[in-house]
Amino acid sequence: MAKMTYGLELETVNLTGEQIGRAIEGIDDLEFGGHFGYHGSRVLGLRHARMDGSRIVWVTERDGSLSHSSGRTAEVVSPILHGRDGLAHAGRVMRAISRAGGKVNRTCGTHLTMGVKDVSARFRRMGANAQAKVAMLVVEIYDYFNMAFQTLVSESRRNNSYCYRPIGTGEQNFENRGLRDLQTFGQSSKATYANNLRRVQYQRGQVNLNKFASTGIIEFRMHNGTLNPKKITTWALLHHQILSFVCNNTQFEDFRNFPPNLYGLCEMLNVGSDLRSDLFTRANETANVYRTNYDNRMLEAHLNFINGREGQGVVA
Questions:
Q1: Phi then psi for 204, rounded to 5 degrees?
Q2: Could you tell me what percentage of the chain is helix, strand and coil, using 3-state DSSP and rounding each to the nearest 5?
Q3: Among 21, 36, 52, 310, which is most exposed with the fewest C-beta within 10 angstroms?
Q4: Band of the pLDDT at 168, cuts 50, 70, 90?
């Protein structure tokens, strides 16, 4: 994970931004950049601070989607972080906020932003269509294996209006917008993927590609609010595995060869034993997985495919 760059947005309750700032400044080598309005820190460029030993700047911002009986809420925004050292660094901040009284509730989420251009030199050499394919493969993985991702987050994030499915915002909307053909199970051409990338807006989805074309970053919005470093480390390592998979492979096996659950996702990505163990431990902590009719259609698509009745696209 040495080359990966990423950032975290931690939605919290029970502390003000200023109180969180004091907790962060209690960590020796960190600097608190201030509390801002919604996305207000961007004007200072603090989100571009790097862990180079000079300025490691965290900020907090107001987020109107959060609510708590105390009236105290804040979104904590990290600088650009790097590799496992960055995960350990974020863990120190999360523990400091928890010790100060920070909490999460059902209104909170955790957003993970990853710099795809830093995953591999191969990605940086790709043309626009090939890079579009990378983005759409991530979308298709999230769509086909959505049951797997559901098992890794709390119930509050499984059907949340702030993190809807990457293909379609719901069963009826999916049908009405004519998006059924976007799920091609990893088998489309680069040109088709580039066209599909232009067809759909993803800003509020589980996978946010709003800045992909300009900056090469992807935001993953599905995870529930947490101040638990282990949960975020497991989530970040899984997404690093996904991005490495879509960037560095030239041929992709049809996704329908794998069951659309966590086991199938781990098999397709060839997830190592340590991360696999952590993923299934997390899955065992959650219960009552939310399943839509669309998930059932993905299961049927898998069964039909391995039985030689694959047809075209998602099975109705």
A1: -100, 10
A2: 45, 15, 40
A3: 52
A4: low
